[in-house]
Amino acid sequence: MTEHHNTTYGNGKGEGQPVGIALLGLGTVGAEVFRLLNEYNADFTQRVGGPVEVRGVAVSDASKAREGIAPELLTEDAHALIQREDVDVVVEVIGGIDYPRELVLAALRAGKSVVTANKALVAAHADELAKAADEAGVDLYFEAAVAAAIPVVGMLRRSLAGDKIQRISGIVNGTTNFILDAMETTGASYEDALAEATRLGYAEADPTADVEGHDAASKAAILASLGFHTRVTFDDVHCEGISAITAEDIQAANQAGYSIKLLAICERLTGEDGKESVNARVHPTLVPKEHPLASVSKSFNAIFVEAEAAGSLMFYGNGAGGNPTASAVLGDVVGASRNKVHGGRAPEENTYANLPVADFGQTQTRYHIDMQVKDRTGVLAVISSVFAEQGVSLRTVRQEEGKDGARLIVVTHAATESVLDGIVRALEGLDDVHAVNSVIRLS
Amino acid sequence: MTEHHNTTYGNGKGEGQPVGIALLGLGTVGAEVFRLLNEYNADFTQRVGGPVEVRGVAVSDASKAREGIAPELLTEDAHALIQREDVDVVVEVIGGIDYPRELVLAALRAGKSVVTANKALVAAHADELAKAADEAGVDLYFEAAVAAAIPVVGMLRRSLAGDKIQRISGIVNGTTNFILDAMETTGASYEDALAEATRLGYAEADPTADVEGHDAASKAAILASLGFHTRVTFDDVHCEGISAITAEDIQAANQAGYSIKLLAICERLTGEDGKESVNARVHPTLVPKEHPLASVSKSFNAIFVEAEAAGSLMFYGNGAGGNPTASAVLGDVVGASRNKVHGGRAPEENTYANLPVADFGQTQTRYHIDMQVKDRTGVLAVISSVFAEQGVSLRTVRQEEGKDGARLIVVTHAATESVLDGIVRALEGLDDVHAVNSVIRLS
């Protein structure tokens, strides 16, 4: 604030007034948020326009001592903390869906702005939360819900608000990227790479939410909603994980010039009637080696945005972890706190476009199909005709000797998922085809 | 806006009220801004909360017909257009400094929010402009001033507001990146690569502002100011361009595993007394091939940000051109217009940290020094002792036969610019050294 700052805006508390924070949750992210709220406090006072003060921290066991936190700040009664008159901004970093939903709704309805890092909550209940925030005239921020410190939420909400986004594709789950990257660089099997990721702390004891793509699907729903100004929820997202990817798939992709990445893809589609729809999906994807997403290694995240006027943009960084997530949470805390002091609100979520979510069967993409076939003259003609009958042409065909007959790898031109489904069923019905080993989409 | 949106904030015009735009300038960017304001108009109405209407376009010759623009919108009297009561937001895309400064100040003082793409203006006069915006309680947006469509200004202003930034390094000038990339990939001389850039429209007829680094220096000043919450102006930025870079420099860098990039580097420094200062500089820099900035090719821009909690982030995209710049301008127009409807202001520039700009001589970096030396036994000992006497140790030494004696390339460990200056002067005074061909800093 400069000394010339002499106006307040609307319903702000006014320059110099303190902003009270309720912190819900004290896990890895919560502890970092608390620590940095102290460490950067003098800066936050300047950036917000008034001191930012933690009123209390809701935990499940308030009797447990926590280093660096005064015991009187701890409480097990999150609801009472939220309702305190001197609380202005509620930070939710508990995780889960039902309990945080209840708390976040209570906070919004009590006129508190909310900052949450909870992707599952936002992806499942965004409409309800946005409505509550809107009715109360308060802010709902969730930068940390997608790709932690990479500020893609703010970018879509604000910076790209003057453009028309066509496509968002991103590596938004660090665990699966770590596993796929390890498989590619070491030749390891999925099981071995997962074990290594678990050992190093990149994968949780129960890795299902990560490896089956559920975590990425929540993020895809949020990205699609913001990017296309419409509502896409977790249930709208077609989701396939990486647990079926084999070392052979990685190797075949590499030979063809691709890396396999688990991508969250959000597309704006225009039908033959000119009507727009959207799709959002998560699945393993062949990305050409020369594409910027292919070189995103280890547990890093990156989001690639294609907009009409801006062209292609990419944002890269740490997509998980206590510190990067806390950075995103605190950026939101500063924004929400500033609005409490000066008045004004962040741009609310705006789903005016109200676009239908296209049936997944209508999604068009290209496919990399790996088959075990009989090693006899004429087999290629038989297989090709299956594709030709469905009007799908082949881009590349590679045949090599396998242990049991021949291995045939084809890459198709674009086809819809439903057509492809029919082709795979037809292939599996052929005497000449022992097995369809894998079908992986191209980006 | 959803139907539940039932509050306005403070001094907003109110939901559904139109926002009047004055467009100053109709060059490449201005024409795109005008076109897209029409094309996206229905979307903007929804995103802003009221219709966005162009009241007039200030041009130097209003009698000239412009395709797609009603003649009655054109005016040569920018001041009268700005002062119109039905103008809320002024978009300045004229370029230059003095005349736009006069117009932007007039607009702010008249209570209009301003969106500008003018890096030179912001880098030279940010304090004066921020003060005028603050006193009038209006917004001053300039996302397009740095790296066009890459939303780095918004990111520093908002998303990273909860973090402490340590370093920003970026490729923020497309012309010079195109030239250096062409030199690296084709082996061309600087002159030939510049000629090619000019032919393809990447370089202007007078390329001085780009190739001498002035354009990048303006952007460095803006990035440092936002990132460190202090004021850094164009004059504070140490600036060296690329016109002295030779094909031999590029080749030597490549052999050592580096690409040469023109970087804008902004650093937070902590002195031995614990006091902080900042520096901002633009110069050709050796970037290790494995660093994400090394692979930024053609005229693309990328900004690499290192923050305490977030870690490393990179933002990549089109850093110039009518469309990408218009995208950034329009994102700002939506933001400023939304605030006019709903009340509230964007976070103003906040230079509270008030950090001194460190003397350039105190900058610490590593150096790649390319010399022509006598080809005689003992020359390396003589040269090494010059470095040793100044307490600078050598990281790598490479000697090869040259046409006139030997060529010696050393890479030093970190040293200050003033120490390095002394070393270079001492080397140039040695009988054994024919010439110091080049001194290039490492990133």
Short structural description:
Two copies of one chain form a homodimer. Chain A is α/β, with parallel strands linked by helices and 443 residues long.
Structure description:
Two copies of one chain form a homodimer. Chain A is of the alpha/beta class. Chain A has three domains: 19-148 and 322-342, 3-Layer(aba) Sandwich (Rossmann fold); 153-317, Dihydrodipicolinate Reductase, domain 2 (2-Layer Sandwich); 360-442, Alpha-Beta Plaits (2-Layer Sandwich), CATH 3.30.70. Helices cover 36% and strands 25% of the residues of chain A. Chain A is built from 14 helices and 18 strands. In chain A, the strands form three sheets. In chain A, strands 7, 8, 9, 10, 11, 12, 14, 15, 16 and 18 form a ten-stranded mixed sheet that branches. In chain A, strands 3-2-1-4-5-6 form a six-stranded parallel sheet, with helices on both faces. In chain A, strands 13-17 form a two-stranded antiparallel sheet. In chain A, helix 6 runs parallel beside helix 10 (214-228). Chain A is elongated and about 80 Å long. Mean pLDDT of chain A is 94; it is low at 1-9. Chains A and B meet through helix 2, helix 5, helix 6, strand 12 and helix 12 of A and helix 2, helix 5, helix 6, strand 12 and helix 12 of B. Strand 12 of chain A pairs antiparallel with strand 12 of chain B, so a sheet runs across the interface.
